[in-house]
Amino acid sequence: MRESVKAFKKRKSGHKKGSNAKKKQRQFLDMKAKVKKIDPRLKKLLKKKARDYNSDDDNEDETAHASEDDNADSMNDDVSSDDDGKEKKNLGIEIEGSENEDEEDYDMQPGITRFSEGSRAFRIAFKSIIKKAISDDSLGPVLSGHKKLVAEKLAEEETERKVKGESKKEKHLVREKGHVKPANYLDAHEKFLLTVATKGVVKLFNAVNKAQNAQKGLNPSRSKDAKVIKKRRKEAFFSELGKKPVADTSTKVHASSGEGPSWAPLRDNYMLTNSKLKDWDKIPARHQILSTTYINPVIYTYQMEGGKKDYNCKIFGNLATGSSETHHAGKPLYRTDPSNRLED
Amino acid sequence: MFVKPIAKKKQANVDHITGDKIPKSFVFARGKLPVSLRQLQMDLRKLMLPYTALKLKEKKRNSLKDFLNVAGPMGVTHFLMLSKTETAPYLRVARTPQGPTLTFKIHEYSLAVDVAQSQLHPRCPQDLFKNAPLIVLSGFGSGEQHLKLTTVMFQNIFPAIDINTVKLSSCQRIVLLNYNKDTKLIDFRHYSIRLQPVGVSRRLRKFVQNHQVPDLRNLQDVSDFVTKAGYGSESEGDDEAATVTLANDLGRVNKASTKSAVKLQEIGPRMTLQLIKIEEGLCSGGIIFSEYGTASEKRQEKNQSNGDDQDDNEDIEENDEDSD
């Protein structure tokens, strides 16, 4: 049973194959039919095109020959040109003939020609190609081989690209003007700047340490401690006041500043000269800043009880860092600025 | 009829401790900027933090008046304007609303990104930009008026410090402006401040800082970890000038009343500026100072030179002698 089944199966499978093959054949036939059923109009058009193409070729050939005739000697060339002419005629006839044949035995499958026919056509075609006289260019009509043309075009493109690139580069330069990538090491100048900045920070931190050490261990929220803090701040404040600004002894001194108190509000002419930023040039005249380095305006505060109101008194000092030129390091230099003073 | 008096809101633009008016700033561009300058603008905004508009949106049609109108209610006191011409980029620093305006020519600049790229270990702690930077002005004390004005301007651009109440932990950054007398250029640098305890081996410091289990494989005893000195690269070049005693604890590492070394690391941006003009008003008004001389001055000079030419040669010789 099994065997039989197997056989059956086998047969069946074979049958299947056969059917498939048939199908394929049918398909092939269909295809053929389809191929055969090309629209005659289209076919004509194609043929016409083919002819045109050939004629073009002929023309070109003729022109090429004509040009060569001009150049070359008489005898040999004449013969060769004659030969060419003959062959051309032959070729033309042949093509026509083949076309005719195609038309005549319509049942012959397209794309297949008899061997003899094919070989003849090939021979003619080959001959014609070999006979073709080529210009001295040696490369012939192969465009990609025309080094001169290609080189010219490439050069042109190159110059174009160069011009474009240059203009782009120029634009980029203008855009990036002043943009500098820093070196990945510290040169002398950077180191100098770093030390200057460090000095400033150290100065400030020391000042903060000095000021805050005074109120260390005291809780400002406790009234007892607050009093102590106040007292200490007062002392510190007046000690700051007591220091004479360096400017007073310098060359540019106001008449009053020599005698009067060093802090501006304690002077007679205070507030008479408005020292807004508008009159910025008058401020330094009164308190000339001699040192070379300043940090943020640092505030020394002290609470004064004046009548009903409590108001803050502030000194805006500049922590001057020590520099080689001046020895006034650490001495606060005063600057008064009404905009910074408290209004009520 | 009783009208409830409107409670006066505590002004946000006043420091709640010192009661000072906090300077605030806008950083924006005038005209179209190339990419790198836009980045510089962003860096400057970060530098001006926290009292600046980090995400200030500007449009092409925004005029200076628009910014000025917004500046009033917002309490903005300073404008930093970047612009660009064929020759160079420019930075204008102005006080609002009345001026003055300082115009700087930016000779060279590097972005924060460039600076970070140039460093082996760029540093940017989380709360670096939460407090205003300190400002250090150096070399401006030569007595010239325009330099003084520059000093005042830059001092007021950042909030003042009350040394009685200031917390050292809020001093994280520093802006340095260094004036070079010879070249008349101002170096603008931005550093981050880091404090390190002095006299502690690098190993121990790292151990305390990093909170990581140290590698003890190569050691015979735990005590070696403490006693053994690290490799020779330990920078013992901490000069005395760069050490401070702290008033209070700063972080886990820096304890009060111990010596700490101040280390600065650049965070950028970096600029080389040249002061070329000072105007009285906000980008307008009379010119107080001009590097290249004002038009009227030039005219005068021209007239003088013409006059000199007409004079006799003897006069010129005399002048030369005088000048000598």
Automatic annotation (TrEMBL), chain A:
Region called Disordered, residue ranges: 1-111, 324-344
Residue ranges annotated as coiled coil are none
Q: Name one Pfam family in it.
A: Rrp15p
The residue ranges flagged as biased composition, category Acidic residues, are: 69-82, 96-107
Q: Which GO terms describe its cellular component?
A: preribosome, large subunit precursor
What InterPro entries does UniProt report for this protein, alphabetically? Rrp15
Regions of compositional bias (Basic residues) in chain numbering: 7-26
Q: Which PANTHER family match?
A: RRP15-LIKE PROTEIN
Q: Which family does it belong to?
A: Belongs to the RRP15 family.
This protein is called RRP15-like protein
Automatic annotation (TrEMBL), chain B:
Q: Which PROSITE patterns match?
A: BRIX (PS50833)
Domain annotation Brix: ranges: 23-284
Superkingdom of the organism of origin = Eukaryota
Annotated GO molecular function terms are: rRNA binding
Tell me the InterPro entries matching this sequence.
Answer: Brix (IPR007109), PPAN-like (IPR045112)
**PANTHER family noted in UniProt:** PETER PAN-RELATED, SUPPRESSOR OF SWI4 1 HOMOLOG
Q: What is this protein called?
A: Brix domain-containing protein
